[in-house]
What we know:
Chains A, B: It comes from Methylobacterium marchantiae. 2 copies of one chain form a homodimer. Chain A is built from 8 helices and 9 strands. The longest helix of chain A is centred in the middle third of the chain and has 27 residues, at 120-146. In chain A, a hairpin with a 2-residue loop joins strand 8 (200-203) and strand 9 (206-209). Chain A is of the alpha+beta class. Chain A has 2 domains: 6-121, Sandwich (Jelly Rolls); 148-223, Arc Repressor Mutant, subunit A (Orthogonal Bundle). In chain A, strands 1, 2, 3, 4, 5 and 6 form a 6-stranded antiparallel sheet that branches. Chain A has a 3-stranded antiparallel sheet with strand order 7-9-8. The first copy, chain A, has helices at 19-26, 109-118, 120-146, 149-161, 173-180, 184-196, 212-219, 225-235; strands at 29-34, 39-41, 49-63, 69-75, 80-81, 95-108, 168-170, 200-203, 206-209. Chain A is globular. In chain A, helix 4 (149-161) packs across helix 6 (184-196) and helix 4 packs across helix 7 (212-219). The interface between A and B is large, with 46 and 46 residues. The first copy, chain A, binds a DNA duplex through residues 148-149, 172-174, 182-186, 188-189, 192, 202-205.
Amino acid sequence: MLVPSKRYVRNGLLSVLRSDDYAAIQSAIEPVALGRKDVLVQPEQPLTHVYFLERGVASVVVGTPEGKRIEVGIVGHEGAAGLPLLFDVDSTPHETFIQIEGEALRIGKAAFFRALEQIPAFRKVMLRYAHVFQLHMAYTALSHGSYTLEERLARWLLMCHDRVDGDEFPITHEFLSIMLGVHRPGVTTTIHVLEGAGLIRARRSFIEIVNREKLRIVAGDSYGVPEAEYRRLITNGALPD
Amino acid sequence: MLVPSKRYVRNGLLSVLRSDDYAAIQSAIEPVALGRKDVLVQPEQPLTHVYFLERGVASVVVGTPEGKRIEVGIVGHEGAAGLPLLFDVDSTPHETFIQIEGEALRIGKAAFFRALEQIPAFRKVMLRYAHVFQLHMAYTALSHGSYTLEERLARWLLMCHDRVDGDEFPITHEFLSIMLGVHRPGVTTTIHVLEGAGLIRARRSFIEIVNREKLRIVAGDSYGVPEAEYRRLITNGALPD
DNA sequence: AATGGGATGTACGAAATGGTACATTGACGT
DNA sequence: ACGTCAATGTACCATTTCGTACATCCCATT
């Protein structure tokens, strides 16, 4: 895989940069393939790269020694993994791994710092993304605390759908149960409810989104706020300097 | 109230600065009293200041039009409110209000930007705090998704205890139920359980922490990770430059 | 001392989720 | 075609939390 010129970059954070700003970091960019369950950020281990996803989906999870584990963030071609480096933090308790395979453009730590310093627009878009990601985490907390499993599942499917090509993606009930912090049979049952209502179609290891509009209605206000904030601040957000 | 000289500053973010760095922003600092239910950050409204708490506790919450509402962060003398300004974001869906009265040192938006630019150590400590705050949000999401009400209540009481002077603070069951995203009678019942075990003592509108160690055992691993990360990165974290 | 309202105590049945166990099925390698 | 195993389907009861209703109790104000 080659380093793409700016016009072929899908990543939402890199593609909003001016051509000359992108050119300034292009040489530091290295394309990498992302396989299922690959770990981009290992908890408590030194971070080496920031990953700008081009395709595929990554999950950011936190866990405890007792084995509890839950997804607190999701990253696709709109974002990046390895944000602690932006915060001058070398390692973190979070874990980030690939949920759905794809590719990323990654930048080494030193080059990332240099780019932050030298390219104001890059720093800005990274900071704004960090805000949106944090907001996403806040709504994840709200979902886990105040929404039913059916609503949370609808929310997760919508977020995943936003980040993949097409209407179908590979995911098992087992994984979904970990992401949502519930037990696996509950996921199976709830998937049947959504499928019975004609909103999705489930095959072994795959889910297809059939009626996105109705899924949004099921998800209610658990979905949408961080997404709108992303559009406001990044897609449409002016990046002066 | 006067602007304190550095040696009398309690705020954990300001007090780690070198004297000369603190002196550089001292003239921009304005002390303000924080009364119960005062709003520091109004959702969707332009941010005007960053508040470094000296005493008291603030809650960061997110909500939905349907009226659901939950706490995703808590701020005391270890931190600051108004972080979106750090991210080059002028307004946010979050709301931040005072839970327990106190005082803060606040800095206007323009002076805050200037300080970030001119004082590397200040920028660093703010970024690191943003990371810890985000981590706190992640563990809040984990708590809401994977811990029982009793565990979550214990966690909240510990976090509040960390941020007040003494072992007693004013809080109603009603407020706690909003913070934890559960119904109010459940809070009452759970408080009785903790009280029966001799971990806390409850009076009308007040809760006293009697046995912090046992509370930690009840809270389990829902409490502690962000706190340790704060100590690692800020209290003990070198701030070169 | 009266009184009004916020705060708390309590009590259900209803609903959602957890915990566990086990049968079935589809995909893949041999 | 067969065997194997991950993935899914289903069942059932225990536990937790919700929803709601209402009684009681502090305590500041009058």
